[in-house]
Amino acid sequence: MIIYGTNGSHVRTVAAPALACPACANPGQLSLSVFSRYAHIYWVPLVPYAKPAVAQCLHCKGAWTLKELPPEATNIREDLQTLKKQTMAPWWHWSGLVVLLLLAAWGLWASGRDQKENAAYLAAPQVGDIYTVRENDSAGEYSLLKVVRTQGNTVELVANEYAIDNAHPLDKLNDPAKYSKESFSLSQLDLRVMQQKG
Questions:
Q1: Helix, strand, or coil here: 178?
Q2: Count of alpha carbons within 13 Å of 5, Cβ hemisphere only?
Q3: CB burial class (10 A; 0-12, 13-18, 19+) of residue 74?
Q4: Which parts of the chain span the membrane according to its record (predicted)?
Q5: Do 46 and 38 contact (CB within 8 A), yes or no?
Q6: Any idea which of 30-34, 116-120, 123-127 has the lowest mean pLDDT?
Q7: Which of 97, 116, 163, 164 has its CA 20 to 30 A from that of 141?
Q8: What are the contacts of 63-72 at 24+ separation with CB within 8 A?
Q9: Any bridge partners for residue 55, and if so which?
Q10: 70 assigned to some structural domain
């Protein structure tokens, strides 16, 4: 399966009636073309990286890139370079990069929204709220704490007696039988400190 690679497409061709072919010397038979090369991931264009330019004779079928033109063909080289500078890569050659930027922007927005929602939950805890916790900063196992009572600045919680290596353990661990019968208290400040530590 091809995951990434390069491809190209034709962008523009113009006739050059004032120029003679460097091989057969026929006037008015040259056409100048510009192509765009782009990198892709799963055939979705990511970003253009080159604009090859080619002069082709319609009479003798000879074709030359800028590097392949003979030294005496300066007027052809100049016209080809001018056409190359005036030609932009198609907008769709940037489509993969645009999609990646949109995904990154959405991820930042979603992360900010989650942080605001978490801060709101911690600012006004309600009975039945459930918090996902880790045992310590380096632990890869997660568990749950459930709010059973709130009084002023103090929150009474029960811990889930099970842990799982999934950062979203709610579906698998949120069963009343899995929670401890013993409760403990934390202040809202303690909960905010825990959130800041991750």
A1: helix
A2: 7
A3: exposed
A4: 91-109
A5: yes
A6: 116-120
A7: 116
A8: 64/22, 69/22, 70/22, 72/22
A9: 32, 64
A10: yes
Instruction: Report d(CA 164, CA 133) in Å as an integer.
Output: 11
What's the domain range around 174?
114-196
Find the helix or strand (DSSP H, E) in which 186 lies. Answer: strand 179-187
> What does residue 147 show for φ and ψ, rounded to 5 degrees?
-80, 125
Quick check: is 103 in a domain?
A: no
**Whether residue 85 sits in one domain with residue 120:** no
Has residue 24 got a pLDDT over 80? yes
Residue 70 CB-half CA count within 13 A: 9
The residues near 48 (Cβ < 8 Å, ≥ 6 apart) are 36, 37, 38, 89, 93, 94
pLDDT band of 136, cuts 50, 70, 90: low
Give me 159's structure tokens: 């811990």
pLDDT at 165: 83
Classify 110 as helix, strand or coil. helix
Q: Which pLDDT score is estimated for 108?
A: 94
Q: Which two tokens stand for residue 182?
A: 């013993």
Chain centre distance of CA 44 = 12
